[in-house]
Design goal:
The protein folds into two domains: 1-23 and 200-224; 25-198. The two termini are 20 Å apart. By secondary structure, the protein is an alpha+beta fold. It is 19% helix and 43% strand. It has two helices and 13 strands, in the order αβββββββββββββα.
Length: 224
């Protein structure tokens, strides 16, 4: 009976851990409260995000006025932002726009372990735009966004060259500061940052797992 109980506890806890780790990551995207010329700031799950352009300028949420959600995913079978680890696309009208080459430094008020950067219409079919980062990243997802489905090529030293790319980059944390530069000039493209809230085992599940391990240890002592 005890063996069955321990085995059941372990199976239940293991199933919970596997399901939790496979679930998509809910992301809190930045609420931008100020975007003006060479600086921008916002709130990301209670922490402050500060963006400073050391060269070039940044502009507001869209080319004209914020009335359109540019973070749409028109093809459910090929989603730009939720095709990887992320469960939810960025919030409508929340993005920092660029229309010229810039060098940018981003500071987070607390180190971020699960940092995501959503990209909106980077480059065009006839114009390749590159982002050069000082921090390693992976492409978490890319697909069809508001202006289509583009392509990208990863380069040396944490660079990515894009043609009409809509997608999400993931940075291994913890990240306190992040710098990148863009080239060449493009009419308009945009980005935003988000923090992931990956599922972790709840205290009750950890307690069950601990109980199972204790039971196994006790059974082994009896056998020896």
């Amino acid at each position: 009976m005890k063996r069955k109980l321990v085995r059941g506890v372990l199976l239940a806890a293991a199933s919970y851990l596997v399901i939790g780790s496979a679930a998509a990551d809910p992301v809190s995207w930045t609420d931008w409260t100020r975007i003006s010329g060479t600086s921008a700031s916002g709130d990301m799950a209670g922490m402050t995000v500060t963006v400073t352009a050391t060269s070039g300028v940044m502009n507001g949420p869209s080319q004209t006025a914020c009335g359109t959600n540019w973070w749409t995913q028109p093809d459910p079978s090929n989603p730009a932002y939720t095709g990887g680890s992320v469960s939810n696309a960025p919030t409508a009208c929340e993005q920092v726009g660029l229309d010229s080459p810039v060098s940018i430094t981003v500071e987070f008020s607390s180190p971020v372990s699960n940092l995501y950067m959503a990209l909106l219409s980077i480059g065009r079919s006839g114009l390749e735009v590159s982002y050069d980062f000082d921090t390693a990243f992976t492409v978490d997802s890319e697909g069809r966004g508001f202006w289509g489905d583009g392509t990208y090529v990863l380069g040396a030293n944490d660079t990515i060259a894009m043609r009409e790319l809509h997608g999400v980059l993931s940075f291994a944390g913890p990240v306190s500061t992040l710098s990148f530069s863009t080239t060449p000039s493009e009419y308009w493209h945009a980005f935003t940052f988000g923090i992931g809230e990956r599922s972790v085992p709840e205290p009750g599940t950890l307690a069950l797992l601990g109980l199972g391990l204790v039971g196994i240890a006790a059974m082994r002592r009896r056998r020896s």
